[in-house]
Amino acid sequence: MQLTMKTKLTELLHRKVPILAWLPKYNVNAAVSDVLAGITVGLTLIPQAIAYASLAGLNPKYGLYSSIFGGVMYIFLGTTKQLSVGPTSIMALLCLTYTHDTSLEMVAFLTFLTGLVQLTCGLLSLGKCKSYLYYGTPMSDVHT
């Protein structure tokens, strides 16, 4: 019984923090390709992050911070290798809409709160609920 509970806990931890599952099996020979891909994505994110920070009405350095922090967090919590994480135009426009006449602290609080909601949804596996939504509902966010 004790071994079964330990195994279940380990499986749960590997599902919620995927780096614990794949890092021990990582092929070191692929490191050069992975570093090159990371540099390529990072260079692509620089102008994008600066533009989206300007779109949100913020100093461009905050766009760079958001792209770096998002990528680092995705290393530990992400499950897909083929994904570029960073600021988006939709989030920049929403940030401008809700914080255009407030202080930088309010922007930081909104960002923190958004991340907290996303982390909670991920830990509670609420992504499964999307199967109950009409197909056009989540896609409308992408196409606006």
TrEMBL record:
<keyword id="KW-1133">Transmembrane helix</keyword>
<protein>
    <submittedName>
        <fullName>Sodium-independent sulfate anion transporter-like</fullName>
    </submittedName>
</protein>
<feature type="transmembrane region" description="Helical">
    <location>
        <begin position="35"/>
        <end position="55"/>
    </location>
</feature>
<feature type="domain" description="SLC26A/SulP transporter">
    <location>
        <begin position="33"/>
        <end position="133"/>
    </location>
</feature>
<keyword id="KW-0812">Transmembrane</keyword>
<dbReference type="GO" id="GO:0016020">
    <property type="term" value="C:membrane"/>
</dbReference>
<keyword id="KW-0472">Membrane</keyword>
<dbReference type="GO" id="GO:0055085">
    <property type="term" value="P:transmembrane transport"/>
</dbReference>
<dbReference type="Pfam" id="PF00916">
    <property type="entry name" value="Sulfate_transp"/>
</dbReference>
<feature type="transmembrane region" description="Helical">
    <location>
        <begin position="106"/>
        <end position="126"/>
    </location>
</feature>
<dbReference type="InterPro" id="IPR011547">
    <property type="entry name" value="SLC26A/SulP_dom"/>
</dbReference>
<dbReference type="InterPro" id="IPR001902">
    <property type="entry name" value="SLC26A/SulP_fam"/>
</dbReference>
